[in-house]
Structure formats: structure tokens, C-alpha cells
Amino acid sequence: MPVLLFVLYVVAEIAAIATVAHFVGPLWTVLLLIAGSAIGIVVVRAQGRRVMDGFRRASRGEGSPGGAMADGALVALGAALMFVPGLVTSVLGLLLLAPPTRAMLRPVVVAITARRFAAVAAAASAAAASGGAVVVDGEVVEQWYEPDFLAEPQPAVTSRQVDETIYIDEQRY
Known about the structure:
By secondary structure, this protein is mainly alpha-helical. Helix content is 68%, strand content 6%. A three-stranded antiparallel beta sheet has the order 1-2-3, with no helix packed on it. It is extended. This is FxsA family protein.
């Protein structure tokens, strides 16, 4: 299935580039690809800042944490699509980076995430109710110990007190 999706992606990108090159010419097509990447970099930076502001507002209790996480996921996906070469991925990336498109997709992302989280929580509670953890029999083949330089350092000066006499580095004071 992943191979089929990759082949479909490559065919769609080649068809899009060939169609655009047919209508506007090869030079303008290359310039369009370069301009799309440049615009993408600028938009990713701006929307990344906006998402971080949303995270800050959500951490202060001024906004929805689910909405901030959904925006962050959509901006991350849009940024990843912007850096994959091609016209189709650039257009999809710009759409995901646009605030109106994210506003339309945000409830869908929150609903999908909530449904998946509920399924994971139900599976975890079922596993806990059925007896807990899964035990796997095995044996230790190799053990690794921390080297001495990771051990806690010893103090350079040692001191001890016996009755009222103080010994520092084994000299009496």
C-alpha cells in the first residue's frame, strides 16, 4: 500500500508539472516551484510563531489546548509538505498553513484525536483490568555498566571531626 501511494504521488506531481509547463512554459514552471518554496519558508516562520503564541495562551488558560495542538499538527504537516518538492505538495502545504483552512480542519483533527485517544485509553484500562502487564520470558545476554567517570565525583578536601578535634586531609586542627 505505501508503494502504491508513493507511485500515485509521483504520477500526480509529474502530471501537475507537465500541465503547468504546457500552459505557462518550462521556465515559468521552474520559477513557480522556486517561488513556492520561498513563500513557504516565509509562511512557515510566520505561522510557527502564531502556533507558539497559541501554545502560550493555552498554557495560561486563555485558549483551548486541543485547538492549539491541532493548529500545531496542521502547521507541522503543512511545513513538511512545503519541503517536499513538487507543485501538488506545495499547494497542499500552503493550504494547511493558511489560517482559514486550519480553522476549517481544526474540529476534524480534534475529533479524530479524541476518538483515537478514547480507543487507546479503553485498551489501556482493559489491559489493566485483565491482570496488568504482559510478561515475556527471556535471559540477559549482555549487561552494560556505567563507566567510572559517570559516577558521582568525590570531594577534593575530606574532613572529619572526632570529639572536638577537626581533621582536614588527615591533618589535625
